Request: fold
Amino acid sequence: MVSDEHKRVLDPEQDAGALKALTHPLRIQLLGMLRQDGPATASELAVRTGESSASTSYHLRVLAKYAFVAEAAHRDGRERRWQAVHSVTSWSNKAMEDSPASRDFVSLSRRRQIEHLEASLVRYEADVAEGRLGQEWVEPSGITDLMPRLTPESLSELWEVIDRKLEELAARDAEDPRAERVVFVAAGLPLAPREPDAEPDAKPGRGEPGRDEPGTAGSGTEGGSGS
Reply:
């Protein structure tokens, strides 16, 4: 769970401009990089994204306009450094259902989170293969796709339990030098029964028990009770 001072809660009526600002894929990517890897200059982010520094500088200024990023301490006086203001962007799923624009924003954000998971998997595999992560991380790492039958109340309770446990573990490990940034992506998406004449589903994949690895959103986003 992220404390309130580190969370930006968006209201679809009051924050229409901020929501629109986050619909640009590069802005979501830049915000995610600052949250995951810390402060950076527009030039540094340009190298990492393959964009021009003029482009990253422009989009960072847009993010700053809507208080997603702010100036960080400078290493020298030559170029502005940026940092994320909050570690998580959150919203109420119910409130976001009130307009097509806000529904589109939620859909875009969720798909960006899936892209972040895929990119994180590629990075994780390379880090292990090239020795940047020790072998002690191999066993606890992984992804699982379980499909339990739950009520709406139980799904809400599950999010609350995950939030509490993450808060507890993060606080416990805060000063441990062995701790690393972990991408944790969780999804709770109810599925309505198929119609009798619908094509049968492919057999769902099965993850190993104890290998859940859900994410902060490339942008560090969470909607509703968390995602």
Remarks:
- DSSP finds seven helices and six strands in the chain.
- Confidence is low (pLDDT under 50) at residues 202-227.
